[in-house]
Amino acid sequence: MIVERMTDLIGNTPMLKIPAEIHGLKNIDLYAKLEMMNPFGSVKDRIGWGMIKDDIDSIRETGQVIFENSSGNTAKALCAIAATYGVKFKLVSAIAKVKETKDLLRLLGAEIEEFAAASDCFDPNDPNDPQFLIEKAVREQAGAIHFPSQFTNPKNPQAHYDSTGQEIIDDLGSVDYFIAGLGTTGSTLGISRRLRDANPNCVCVGLTSAKGDFVPGIRSMDQMWESGLFQKDNYNALRDVREAAAIDAMLTLNRDLGVLCGPSSGANLAGSLEYLRGVDESLTERKTAVFIVCDRVEWYMSYIRERRPELFGEAAKPQSLRAFVYNDSGAANDRYSVPVQGADKWIAEHNSMMIDVRGNLAYRMQSIPGSINIAGDLFESMIDSADPFPKDRPILLICPVGEKTARYAAYLQGRGYQAFSLGGGILGWRDAGAQMVRVA
């Protein structure tokens, strides 16, 4: 086969039937759509090309630079495509959490601008948001920037409707269950719409990362953009997946099936099995289910090594935050949180140390008097097995809505700290009318 450009190889990825001895389902045939076999290595190749193919000639002729807000695969695809057309690419994002992503983008010649203060926990008061900053740059530099905007561009789901969804129909005819992780949500939106054209009863299950966990490419429910592509009513069910389960399932695909995929693919398999096992026994006729294998494992070695050092012959860090499993039930939250009502009195009575883990810019704009700022990633590295704070003084942890810091508080309590999370977070404090300050 001879092709003119690498973009000619995007799509038409194979489908792998998962053996019954792997999934254990009695009445469901489970298939994996191998999107890792796209030319740039991921499911995002489709939208990278789909969002710019109609404009790439004019982008090149006018000397525009492609900007995108991405922490991974969309940036890789756009950067690779842009390079083949002689177009410059700039990544504008929060700190990329996977080292190999940045290494590859730099290898491809991308310019990278990261914002350490950008929050990875939803904060509507944080102006240091990459999406906002790119949109501002587009307005200020009219005609110089092309912004595909994967989180809001309707060409994102349309690419999957036209190609990925259609390919699944061509291979299987009809699908009863479609399960996939939610990032921009473009793939699940486009694919599920096409699958429902063929079978209106197709059940679409959206997977998010569990609170406090990080699965590359899959967002938590707190990170879903209400103003973006996410449409909650598109999903028959929403389930969360813990990063430990994602890695375990990834290893099953890697070792038992030779599918060299990354942790988001593992999350898709883990979420599929958790949901499908719940319906399998009640079925009276054969059904078909599909999940997405998103990308390749090579890009996540540092991520995996950090969480599973024993896989690489290294000793696990004792009492590591990464290994901590948090019970986020209501009762648990009560044990680890201080209610916002009366929190000011609690702070005064206990002479507590207040640590705000939001991004620096959000902290400076609105914060609680007397609090100090240690942004989330730095805070995590400080507490991970070390003892950076005195244990004889209560600590009150502050984040946007109180969920992220509840996990930190639970972890630190297990380490002997008097640590608590501010219930409702900074937003609850503000809504209660409590005093806030602006830090110069």
- As laid out across the biggest beta sheet, the strand order is 1-2-10-7-8-9
**Mind telling me which CATH architecture of the domain at 330-431 this is?**
3-Layer(aba) Sandwich
Q: Might you state the CATH topology name of the domain at 330-431?
A: Oxidized Rhodanese, domain 1
The main sheet comes to: 6 strands, mixed
Distance between the termini: 62 Å
Key terms for this structure?
440 residues; alpha/beta; 6-stranded mixed sheet
Which helices and strands appear, and what pairs or packs with what?
Elements: E1 15-17, H1 20-23, E2 28-34, H2 44-52, H3 56-62, E3 65-68, H4 73-84, E4 88-94, H5 99-107, E5 111-115, H6 130-140, E6 145-146, H7 155-172, E7 177-181, H8 186-198, E8 203-209, E9 237-241, H9 243-257, H10 263-280, E10 287-293, H11 301-307, H12 330-336, E11 337-338, H13 343-350, E12 353-356, H14 360-365, E13 372-373, H15 376-383, E14 395-398, H16 403-414, E15 419-422, H17 425-431
Parallel strand pairs: 2-10, 3-4, 3-6, 4-5, 7-8, 7-10, 8-9, 11-15, 12-13, 12-14, 14-15
Antiparallel strand pairs: 1-2
